[in-house]
Amino acid sequence: MSSTVSPLHLRLPATSANLGPGFDALGLAMALYLTIDATAAASFRIDATGRDAELCRSLENNLILTTYSEVLQATGREVTPLHLILSNEIPLGMGCGSSAAALLAGVALANHFGQLNWSSHQVLEEAARREGHPDNVAACWLGGMTASSSVDGAVITATCGQNLTWTLMLALPPASLSTSKARAMLPPTYSRADAVTNIQNTALLVSAFALDRPDLLHTAMGDRIHQPYRAEACPLLPRLIGLAGVMGIYGVALSGAGPSVLLIIDSEADEDVIADAVRSAVGHSGLEILRTTIASGAITR
Question: Residue 11 and residue 31: Cα distance in Å, rounded?
Fold first, then answer.
């Protein structure tokens, strides 16, 4: 049955989740994409180009194909082999939402080729269940700055800021960091003062995106819940966070669980000057800098 299903085109953006104080709650879609053209085939095959193409084309331990197969098996559908033509711009293991994009791709492929007839929101909820928290997958699927909550498996979202013209800059160190290692660095409890500060800053951060108030970001991106505890494994953060508020840099935060750092910048600022300041602050040659913008959500057709 699935062999007669039409091809599917997917384009999924990178994301920066845990945005500032918005731990497990806020994510920002970035215009770096995982693009897939999928057709039913006689056997599984991936042709990959772009970042980490060798890893992306591997059929072993491939999160897209694993998710695709598991969803179909769980719903009692035949696992139809696919030929994927894949182009990747999302850094892997850098806190830029590569796993969220892969999970959503796998669920969307299963929904299409398994003819599950799930709604867009059901696809999102299945990916969020597999990710364990909704912030990355919600921002990837819906775009902009997306706030999300999961209550008894139901994902509730609100999106804003899709049309903001702020520039985004990512500073990437040479080595990656696993999300599980980053989560293991967090304490089991927090003080009331730290919790209140994060609640206040999260409210300001959502307001900044909803109202186009970049002047709020310097304060709003301050965090006491996850960034201080991850700084040892994410050494770029303490070196770059002091740049917030100068040269048109509105705010600085870890991207996801790190180790990359996200800078939100005035669109009229001199990006080359800022990039030079970032390199000078970091002080080593292994740094990679990516420049991008806020993205809209996933495209499926």
Answer: 10
- Bridge-partner residues for 47, per DSSP? 85
As given in the structure block, the two tokens for residue 261 are 């750092």
Long-range CB pairs of 206-210 (<8 Å, 24+ gap) are 206/26, 206/145, 206/147, 206/160, 209/144, 209/145, 209/160, 209/161, 209/164, 210/160, 210/161
| 8, 22, 40, 180 from 255: Cα distances, Å | 30, 11, 35, 15
pLDDT digits (tens, 9 = 90+) for 245-257: 999 999 999 999 8
Burial 172-199 (b: 16+ CB within 10 A, else e): bbeebbebeebeebeeeeeeeebeebbe
* C-beta atoms surrounding 257 within 10 Å: 26
Contact residues for 169 (Cβ-Cβ < 8 A; gap 6+): 262, 263, 265, 271, 274, 275, 278, 289, 290, 291, 292
Convert the pLDDT of each residue in 205-249 to its tens digit.
999 999 999 999 999 999 999 999 998 889 999 999 999 999 999
Does the pTM surpass 0.90? The reply is yes
Cβ within 8 Å of residue 191, ≥6 positions away:
none
Task: Report all structural domains of the chain as residue ranges with CATH numbers, in order of start.
Answer: 2-161 (3.30.230.10), 167-293 (3.30.70.890)
The torsion angles phi and psi of 292, rounded to 5 degrees, stand at -155, -165
At 177 the three-state DSSP class reads coil
